[in-house]
Amino acid sequence: MPRRFTDANELLGDLLDRFEAGTANPIGYPDYGAFASVVATDAFLKEISRAEESGAVSLARGRGLKRNEIAHIRLASADKLYRHVGRTPAPEIAGDAAGRLVAGLELDPRLKDAVAGIAAAWSKGKTWNAFAPADADRLRDAFVLAQAILDGKHVNVDYRTFSRRTVGNSKTLERLENAVVRLLGAIIDLPPEAKPRAALRAIGLERFAPPLLIAGRIDLEATDLSGVTPLYLGMAPTEAGRIRFREPPAYLLTIENFASFNRHIIEADPSRLGTTVYVGGYPSLATQQALRVLADALPAGIPIFHWSDIDPDGTWIFRTIEQAIGRNIRPHLMAPEIAEALGAIPSMKATPARCPAGSSIFELVAYLAGGNAKTLEQEELDPKLPPLVPSALKLPS
Predict the structure, then answer these.
(1) In whole angstroms, how far apart are CA 236 and each of 142, 233, 257, 372?
(2) DSSP string, 300-367
(3) Which one, 191, 317, 343, 351, has least CB within 10 Å?
(4) Is pTM beyond 0.85 here?
(5) Average pLDDT for residues 180-204, to the nearest whole number?
(6) Residue-wise pLDDT tens digits, 375-395
(7) Closest by alpha carbon to 279, among 202, 361, 345?
(8) 131-146: buried (b, 16+ CB within 10 Å) or exposed (e) per residue?
(9) What is the DSSP string of 138-186?
């Protein structure tokens, strides 16, 4: 649809906007039917004529009875129009802002590569992650925070303390977490569909780690809990080393969803044949470390399972836990045939986890990468026990 204007400066500015966005010779049109008065029309035409005289634009006339009217205005020379309207070219603004963005910072080369992409967007008059060139000083903090994460300075530090120590303000990370995750996502493996807060939690950045919820025949160090029989225990993930298996569990099962966790231990395994752990969506780094401690305390023959939604997010959570534990785990109630029977094709396509062919989730990942794959939330399924193993296995001494 033709762009029509009654303000000459707006028209000329629009020509430059579209030129910066990639249009070689943009055109604008006078909106003759919308001028407030003959005086307004004359002022418009006078300003356009001045731009033509400078060589910045060329004018096309109408035909027939309208041969004396300006039909449209075409950009002839961007450089001359910039000078005519007194506007600094976007590439020049972008270059200056990009320079301020990282001046004096020692950055990972991969972070430096991101600057080129940001400058390219700014050169076209666009924003990057809602940041314009005028926001360069604020965006600079996102680079500082991202570099600190790559340097491991976030490990074992809570969210706000890390922000305060890194950039001098405890709330800056909260304001910049979208940009920080976007910068890091091109460098380290982050779940692409996770919200920024969840993605940062997966690599260890959170206010404080949520409690580890665990159900099974377990004790705490020398304290015998067999007479207490709680539904489950809640404890700080860093205390996982205090857990003792009273007897070898038939399985270790991690569950993403809280409702499914409760239903499993109440309905599927009221006798606590296995050990069941709630991981709370994308598991925090502290939870990942706790799972590694629990897995290392199991006999080698005890199978480990994970139960998530049958969707791309579920495969990312599965792979996060599998990598944290450091050995193959098995999907529980996460199979293509279940999705085909009970699921639905999602309205939006998402990217499943990247995983090697040797991973037990590989089949589901391949299925979800297909064009007609169905997804299913785990709450839609009734809980059931994983395949059991003989209870004669002994714990390592």
Answers:
(1) 30, 10, 19, 41
(2) TTS-EEEE--BSHHHHHHHHHHHHHHTS--EESS--HHHHHHH-B--SS--PPPP--TTSTTHHHHHH
(3) 351
(4) no
(5) 84
(6) 999 999 999 999 876 553 444
(7) 202
(8) bbbebbeebbbbbbbb
(9) HHHHHHHHHHHHHTTTTTT--HHHHHHHHHS-TTHHHHHHHHHHHHHHT
Q: Which residues contact 299 (CB under 8 A, 6 or more apart)?
A: 248, 393, 394, 395, 396
The number of angstroms, rounded, from the C-alpha of 214 to the middle of its chain's C-alpha atoms is 29
Query: Beta strands 27-30 and 4-5: pairing type?
Result: parallel
Residue 363 has phi, psi (to 5 degrees) of -60, -45
Which residue, among 138, 136, 118, 142, has the nearest Cα to 128 in the 3D structure? 118
Residue 312, both tokens: 């791309």
185 exposed, middle or buried (CB, 10 Å; 0-12, 13-18, 19+)?
middle
* Residue-range domain boundaries for the chain: 4-85, 90-188, 212-380
What's the confidence (pLDDT) of residue 389? Answer: 60
Burial (CB count within 10 angstroms: exposed 0-12, middle 13-18, buried 19+), residue 101: buried
Distance CA 254, CA 290 (A): 12
CB of 31 within 8 A of CB of 3?
no
- Give the 3-state secondary structure of residue 86: coil
Cβ pair 61, 45 in contact under 8 A = no
Closest CA to 317 of 211, 190, 212: 190
Distance CA 231, CA 242 (A): 18
Q: What is the pLDDT of residues 343-360, one digit of tens each?
A: 999 988 888 888 888 899
Q: Would you say residue 273 has pLDDT above 50? A: yes
Structure tokens at 190: 């982050």
The residue-averaged pLDDT of 40-57 equals 95
pLDDT beyond 80 at 229: no
